[in-house]
C-alpha cells in the first residue's frame, strides 16, 4: 500500500512500515534506540512488533508508562526524561513511541524537548492514533484536566501504521477512532462521509489510508494551524471541554476522546444549522449517525454550565473570543466563528431531545 508523504516525513502502512523501520535504523548511526510503551502495548503490541522486525531492530532500553489520558501530564514526562538520562541517551539517540494517541503525543513531546530534541518515530496502535495523531506533528500533554495545553509542533522521522495492532483493541476503542474518521468526511468530503455511514468495516487499511490522506492534505497546506488546519477541530471545542469535565469529576465515568468528540459534533452541528445554514436534513443525518455508534450521554444543567466555563481554555481562542469550526454543508467547514453564549444551552437541549 502506497506511503503518504507528509510535511517532512512519510506515513508507511502495512509491510512498507516494517521495511521502512528496518531501513531507517540501518542507515542512521543512532547511538542508542529507546522504546516507550504503556502497560497495554507492552503486553499486547510489542511481541507482534518484535516478530515483524525479525530481530533486525534492537532496543537498548524499554520504558513502560501507565495508560490513559489521566497520565498524560508533565509528571509522566519527568519520569521518561529521567529514564532517558539514566540510560545514557544523547542527541544521536532515537525514541520509538509504541502506543495510542496519549503515548505518541507524550513521547513526541519528550523527544522534542530532551537535550533540545532527539529523533523519534511513532507507531500508533489504536485506530484513533492511526487516523489522527499520525499526521501533523502535534506533541504535548494536558495541564490538569485541560487538554493539550503544553506542547510543540515537531515532526517525527516517520510514522508506521500497522493495522494488525487493531486486533488487540476492544470495540469501544475502535469506535472512538471512528469518530475522527467521520469528522474527516464532515469537514472535507461528503462522499467519504456517506461511504463511512454505509460501511460496517471501517477499521481496514484502505479506509485508514483515506483518512490519513485527508488529514495530511489539510496539514500540508497549513502546518502551524494559522488557517485551514483549524477545520480539523470541528466538534473539538465543545468535545474537548466535555472530555476534560468528565475526566476531572470522579463521580463521572470518563469518556474516550472519540466519545466526547461525537457529542461535540452533534452540538456543533446544531450551531452550524443555526449560524451557518447547515440544512436541517444534514443536521438530522449527523445526529442519527453518531447516535447509532455512540451511547447517549446525560448532562445536568450544572454539567452544562461547567462545560461552557471550560471553553475559555480552548487553544483556538484569540483576544478573548471563543472560536468555533462550523459546517455550512457536509464537506464544507468554516473557521473562527463566534457563538452567542445563550446558544450553548439550546445546543445541549437539542442533544438531550435526541
Automatic annotation (TrEMBL):
Stretches assigned to the 3-dehydroquinate synthase C-terminal domain: 177-317
The protein's Enzyme Commission number: 4.2.3.4
InterPro entries associated with the record: Dehydroquinate_synthase, DHQ_synth_AroB, DHQ_synth_fam, DHQS/DOIS_N, DHQS_C
Cofactor requirement: NAD(+); Co(2+)
Any one GO MF annotation of this record: 3-dehydroquinate synthase activity
Pfam families: DHQ_synthase, DHQS_C
Keywords per UniProt: Cobalt, Lyase, Metal-binding, NAD, Nucleotide-binding, Zinc
Domain annotation 3-dehydroquinate synthase N-terminal: ranges: 63-175
The organism's place on the tree of life at top rank: Bacteria
Described purpose of this protein according to its UniProt entry: Catalyzes the conversion of 3-deoxy-D-arabino-heptulosonate 7-phosphate (DAHP) to dehydroquinate (DHQ).
Name this protein carries in UniProt: 3-dehydroquinate synthase
Organism: Flagellimonas spongiicola
